[in-house]
Amino acid sequence: MAIANLNDLTPAAPDGHVNVTWLGDSSVPRNISAHVVSVGGVLFKSAGYLTTAADCGVLIVFDSATAVTLTLPAVAPFAASPVEPSQWSIEVQNIGTGILTVSRNGLTIDGAASNLTVYPGHGVSIRSDGSTYFTSRGMASDADVTFTDITSGNVSTTRHGFAPKSPNSATVYLDGTGAYSTPAGAVPPTDATLATSDIATNNVSTTRHGFAPKAPNNATKYLDGTGVYSTPAGAAQPTFVDGETPTGTINGVNTSFTLANTPAAGSVKLFLNGLRLSGGGADYSISGATITMVNVPGTGDVLLADYRH
Prior knowledge:
- By secondary structure, the chain is mainly β.
- Among the domains are: 3-37, no CATH class; 42-144, Jelly Rolls (Sandwich); 240-308, no CATH class.
- It is built from two helices and 24 strands.
- The chain has helices at residues 147-151, 196-201; strands at 3-6, 17-19, 22-25, 35-37, 42-45, 49-50, 59-62, 68-71, 89-94, 100-103, 116-118, 123-128, 133-137, 173-174, 180-181, 222-223, 229-230, 240-244, 256-258, 269-272, 275-276, 284-287, 290-293, 303-308.
- The strands form eight sheets. A five-stranded mixed β-sheet has the order 5-7-9-12-13, with no helix packed on it. A four-stranded mixed β-sheet has the order 6-8-10-11, with no helix packed on it. Strands 18-24-20-21 form a four-stranded antiparallel β-sheet, with no helix packed on it.
- A hairpin with a 2-residue loop joins strand 20 (269-272) and strand 21.
- The longest helix has 6 residues, at 196-201.
- The chain is rod-shaped.
């Protein structure tokens, strides 16, 4: 029995398939053509591409720095039938830096009426059931995630999502609108931002924390527990006056004399002709800076005062 190579190409294999070689008995000629799904091969693309049924089994690799689109056939290849089973599939890989969009071209992908996004470093397997498309998706590593995919899926007031790219500023925070902003009061005041106007309206008091009020330019006053500047009792050093001649005429008639300063209580020492007089109404009395003598000094008498104020 002779064996012949019956490579009959009639009918020709449809797109996505190849004819196969049959070995048969040459005494029984056959008009038979068989075909199987074509598999293997790599197709590189740097721009948008419309797939066809002939791409079945091909790995389509996109390498683009800008966004590109892979468009699926509007009629899903290989509709189910006894002759053509549903078996069309392609592999897709994005090795560029631009985002790849897989357009569903009016059909659905995984039951959803939305296109598929393939980020840089990602890939997907796409299959047809004869009427629509389904995918098998992998998982990206940490190194594959870039800012390009985060920018297209950021959190907002209408959806969950990625946090937007950090603005490289430690004074701003991601707020409830999905944007970075500076919270009120989050930035401490600086010399450049402080002004008299804000200090005056935010001074410390007995009811709240705040700024120290403006200094009164007086070294004898201090900020006290009521929130104001005052002179502490005993904090000021007294001034001593020795041998002051009070004003007033010594003529044997006048009894009223005045010191240049109001003396501290109990500090006055009054001398008449070198003899110390007794106060408290015995030899004289004092009210404020005014001295009233009990006995009238005579003409030529000398009246001197020591005191502190």
